[in-house]
Amino acid sequence: MKFLKYFLVAALLTLVGFVPQSKAQLSLCFHPSYSTYVTQVFPNVTYQTSGVYSIQQVAHIIGNAGVNGSCTNMTSGIHTPSVSNVLGSYGGTQTGPGVCSFCQTDWTSITSGLFNVSTIYSSNVLFSMRCSIAGAFWSFVSNLQWEIAYTFAFNTGAIRNSYVDAAGRTHFVYAITSYCTTIDPDYKPATLDTLGIYPYATVKYAHTIDVCTRYVGTHTWICATYIPGVTSPALTTTGTLPVQNPSPYCTYNP
How far apart are CA 29 and CA 236, in angstroms? Predict the structure, then answer.
């Protein structure tokens, strides 16, 4: 997911040999242009009957600030990124490598932890940039809710696509739909990627999982783009309904 927002945090500069600059003057010395990205990903896509998954939160910042030509005393400064990367009860503040005042910052922070399916967690990320001369001059905060959403789905039998992978194996992409009829699940898988060795008759049902996020105070979940093997990491090769863990059959957190 992509989140872009910028604002300046001015700091008072007083250096021996230079005329002290006001906060307003200091804010004019930089031209911050940073993009930030926060995503939650599965490092391992295997379906877990325990309902506990390892999740990584990847916080990425890229961009540069530059220095106004009238602020020549700032050109020797080193610009260093830091991020408070907190995922649920995991994480903390990490600092990236410093670069010259005109150089590009391109840095990623990763926080990992174990999380339960169908539980709402918080994602709090604070990006900041600091100049070795002026102090902090830019920051951006991202506060989200997220969950590992589980949906038990059944195969409609309609083939949407087929292809041959790099290993020469044939895949069929079936249309699937939620098994849940009394609720509107947070995650709504649309297709299931199976190897050609699994005919429709043996792939009746599927466990599907995905990471979904939403802004705090809203009710609409946004789930990651479907990736074969990620949202459907395991198949149920039986015509009868298996015992599901977790229960109920679909995650529903309005």
Answer: 60
Question: What's the rounded Cα separation, in Å, for the pair 79 and 5?
Answer: 19
Using CA atoms, how far residue 208 sits from 115, 177, 178, 230, in Å, is 16, 10, 10, 8
> Would you write out the chain's pLDDT as a tens digit for each of its 254 residues?
333 222 222 222 222 223 334 444 555 788 899 999 998 888 766 677 788 889 999 999 999 998 887 788 888 999 999 999 999 999 999 999 999 998 999 999 999 999 999 999 999 999 999 999 989 999 999 999 999 988 888 888 899 889 998 999 998 888 888 888 777 889 888 888 788 777 777 777 778 888 899 988 888 898 875 443 333 434 444 444 544 444 467 889 98
3-state secondary structure of 25: helix
- The answer to whether residues 162 and 219 touch, using CB atoms and an 8 Å cutoff, is no
In degrees and rounded to multiples of 5, residue 74 shows phi and psi of -100, -10
Gyration radius from the chain CA atoms: 24
Pairing of strands 234-236, 205-215: antiparallel
The answer to whether the beta carbons of residues 193 and 165 sit under 8 Å apart is no
Distance CA 52, CA 39 (A): 19
HSE, CB side, 13 Å, CA atoms: give it for residue 246: 17
